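step=predict obj=Methyltransferase n=346
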Amino acid sequence: MTTADPLQLLETDALTGLRGLPDASVQVALTSPPFYLLRRYGTTATWPDGWEGELGHESHPNEFVRHLLDCFDQVWRVLKDDGCLWVNLADTYNNRQGKKGTTNAPDGSNGRFAAGGKGYAESLRQQPEFFKHYIPTIGHKSEIGVPFRFHLAMTDSEFRRFVGAAPGPQWICRRTIVWAKSLVNLETQQARGNAMPEPTLDRPSRNYEFLFLFSKRPDYRFDRKAIDIPARSSIRRGDRANCGSVWQTDYQVLADSDATPDGLWQINPEASPYRHLAMWPRSLVRQMLLPTTRPGDTILDPFAGSGTSGQVAIELGLNAVLIEPSAMARDALSDRLDGLNMALPL
């Protein structure tokens, strides 16, 4: 990558792309890997343990975590010593049968439509992947605990060995942040935000995801003042009533005594015009990059999707290396760069 090309897109799988990057070449890595059993992107890779398939569709979550470690071991190598890594993950439910009758039937049917028919195809299209895969060692309807398994495997060498990974880097988790897509004031029953509604009635809705902040060493670059907010004591009320699973009595981003955003960030999702590509809100990416980079630094996103991280990086005067095998991602990036009067390097 040259100064003439501040954005580099590697159209390959994450592990292959990472292996080709030089040591200590990026200041910050930030990414949202495919969530376990959530959706298919049509990409496959061969992994160091010999498994061949699409990341996020392993038979057990520990195998998924092991493959994530394969990728983030390479991120460790590519990251500068004072750099940091942001990882966005959410959990998945273990379901023996989906609400529309989807099962792992040997004949390929889903319990409601015969295999191959139009109704069958439409039913499957609407179903998250976790409705089609059941893990017998985990209870029916239980959260699988993927983010927690990942956190432990990244930071605890014993748990890393437990998931079957070879010895590797030991990351330091500096903060676990809750990205709340909506918040509710229980006193007024007013909500703020626009999390995706869910039809389930036997548990609180899923309106948050995790952001893990990792570093290679205890001392790393983080400028708290870059995301300082004015201290406030007033309560802001929302505009609709919809209790979610984040329960608190005010709507402010939680702040410590220095008025720095702490462990709960309420940032509304942004709608994606790109089918199958989940989008980070640009304000979320800025919140990650502002305290951890200087102008001219290089950032890395090994699961770049539609390229929000690259767009925000360019807007902040940074260089970006994005890895994404999907052709749809190239089209999305081209659209984003058009708005910045830039062209995607060939």
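step=describe
The two ends are 12 Å apart (CA to CA).
step=end
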